[in-house]
Amino acid sequence: MKMPSLVIIATICCALLDAQELPVSQEQLQPRHHAQATVHDQSICLRFNSPEWSAGVRILPPPQQTTWDFSQARFLAVDVENLSPDHQLRLTMHLASGSRRSNAATQNQDHTTDTPIAARRFRSCYSGIGLNPGEKRTLRLELPHTAIYEHPDSYGRRSLDSNHINAIDFEMQWPFEPPRDGLVYCRLSALRLEGQADHEAQIASEHYLPFVDAYGQYRHAYWPEKIRHDAQLPAAHAAELAELHDAPASWDQYGGWLAGPRLESTGAFRTAKYHDRWYFVSPAGTLFWSLGIDVLRSYTDATNASKNPEWFTTPLPDNGILPFTHWNLQKKYGRDDYADEFYAVLLRRLRSWGINTIGNWGAKELMASGTMPYTLSLGDFTKGITRLPKHRLYDVFAADFAATMGNLLRDRAAADPLVKKSLDDPMCIGYFIDNELPFNKLSEALLQAAPDQPARQAFIRQLQDSYPSVQALNQAWGSDFTTWDKVAAIRASIANNAFRADFRSHARAYADRYFAVCRQAIKAAAPHRLYLGCRFIGFRQADYIWDAAARHCDVLSVNAYSNSVANVSQQDLRDKPLLLGEFHFGTYDRGMFSPGLCPVVSQNERATSYIRLVQGALAHPNFVGAHYFQFRDQPLTGRHDGEGYQIGFVDVCDTPYPEMTTAARQVGSNMYHYREARTLKNNME
């Protein structure tokens, strides 16, 4: 297969030959949140202890300038050196143009150099990097010029007014770490513009539509693996099959550590600490670290083209749905019914790529094969149960919560043969219940509940147990309620320590009941299976949420999108094993309009970022695995909720990204020795 990395390397090498340094003086720096930023020999030494969004440094244009003009360059680049001797660094570089104060009346103007900054629409973009201790690499951001990429009244890549860049920021995205000395300690050098913007790539508006070809790809760009005719699909498939490897030699039949220690064999997956590090333990008793991919399915997210048929070269069927990947797979395998062969090949792919786990939302056909460990979701949010107002949160004090959720696995097994098989399937690691519940909205949801809502009634019962009368409560809260019914009707928090303590106590009871009932759902039907938690949105959860989860979950699970997870607080995790349920990296270099939640500059950088993130998880004593979201790029024009990220191991035509598969193979082949080494180093071998 032709390697696109060679094209990217050549492009970046050419860019380096045409670089324009951007001098930076001390007066241009705006350190934020007690950051220290000093200029010496055109390098910036940056150090800060706070993980907050406001921490870092902003670089302003030189004196006598209000903006920079980056309109003729292709990249903004800076060399970043991690000066920490023992901690991974994660850093993002952000560009901004326009003003947040711009109003709706000016947002669609054709901005010229005479338009005041305050009247231009605020836009921003960013790119990130993760670095091991002492490592130095280049952080690049491809400039999304409005002059090239903006197409009025049509869908496309988000652009930036590169003629009027007003700030360059360095910070950490999605902060989660606790404050500590030298949390970020790095040197930024050779801030520069690279390459020439390809203004000839601009597509005239009259020629832009349609912009999606018959394969679901962007029509107006070229890349090495792009499919242009049907015969390329089976040819690429045959070439890939010839290059697939066996599973790494360091694995046993489960993907566990073949040459590692043997613990007790129980016939089911469990967790254990070995050398002060958490692991899964396979049914055979080998140590198992879970490298997985989510959404391993033949095809997903068919494109609904009914609202914008003019975007597509393909004539719309009556239902307006364009299942591009399904059509591509039919051509690839040469028949309509390709599913069995697809999944057989997918299992070969996963072993070749160094992947040992079927992550969340995997296909039933894949899990039923009995050849690879898997995690199983019992639902992202169970409908039909009493819920709190306005938010995707259950009322755990309602009778139907315990009746339904407490029997969830039993009922799912009765309705689904795959779930029934999982009860006794040694390849089943365990179960997730729910996904990304907004626990940070719990207090708001409880206060919005009606007086007769079970959660509100539970709060009143708790208060009546604590206070002998309403008068006693008033004395503690500094309030003036006349009856318990008036207390039950409260809609806003009270600025009083006793009120806050009582409300936290109620929230703790809520969290404990939620996780206890979910645990019961699994253990009542399959006591030997693991409860893998609810896949938190990020690591910033209230203490009472961590406490309850750690008390009832066998494994905590978190979805987090960042360039490193190495600095996750061990204190938060309460000495429990942790599974990273989602992470990803994406870029723009394959005709997609969005790089996802962790943008990087190229496929090579995606691969390096994958390695660095998993290295950080391997070095952390609590992590027992990391699952990548997701197997395939999302549709160019977005799935049902608008997400259209270039984040996959394969594209819409089922063509693998070789940089990603090579990186995953390197990690999978060496992860057990790397985890035991306990040292962050660039080379995993």
From TrEMBL:
Organism: Oligosphaera ethanolica
Glycoside hydrolase family 42 N-terminal domain boundaries: 423-565
InterPro entries: GH, Glyco_hydro_42_N
A Pfam family that the UniProt record links to this protein: Glyco_hydro_42
Any one cellular-component term (Gene Ontology): beta-galactosidase complex
Keywords: Glycosidase, Hydrolase
UniProt keyword Transport, yes or no: no
GO MF annotations, alphabetized: beta-galactosidase activity
Gene Ontology biological-process annotations: carbohydrate metabolic process
Name under which the protein is recorded: Glycoside hydrolase family 42 N-terminal domain-containing protein
